[in-house]
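Researcher: Please translate sequence to structure tokens.
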Amino acid sequence: MKKALMIASILFIAVVSTACINNIAVQELNNKAAEYMEKGDYESAMDRLQASLDLDATMYETYYNLGIAAINAKKYDKAIEALEGGIKIKPDYADFYYSLGLAQSDLADELMEPSEEDDSEDVSGLNKDNDKKITVSDEDKNKAIDLKRSSVDNLKKYLEMTPKAEDKETIETLISELEAFINDTSLNVEKE
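Model: Translation complete:
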């Protein structure tokens, strides 16, 4: 009996000390990520925050910070993934919905722009090198519309959760602009 109790005690101590070591490592990674964010090195911040999540995927703050770093790095898919992961842990954290709405809108805008290899496009919409018309595919337009709709939903949820938000008017204006984009782009896709 004493032997079993001693083994159980050793196992308990090992588990507790491992948890403490993980907490220290997570805190160090998050602190280093914050330093990188302050310097504008969002890629390095994202690496540290992802490593932090690999050690402890229960901290909603880390998901939020990863989402913000990814938005700043213009990695909108990664931002959306991180923010949606955080919502699963803490669905009552309003800032998740605001940031998710922005990331979705930014990704939609990116889908609606010509790709980097089309940099030689002139104002007429023709590629200067080969006179081919550059357009955005209907598939990308439809993805952009879906992203903008999700963005509207998330921004409205943010406003529901924070009815006295200081930036309420700005967000309402953004929602109106997003809805106008959805309507205009939907009409253009249907015509083609």
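Researcher: Any highlights?
Model: The chain has a mean pLDDT of 81.
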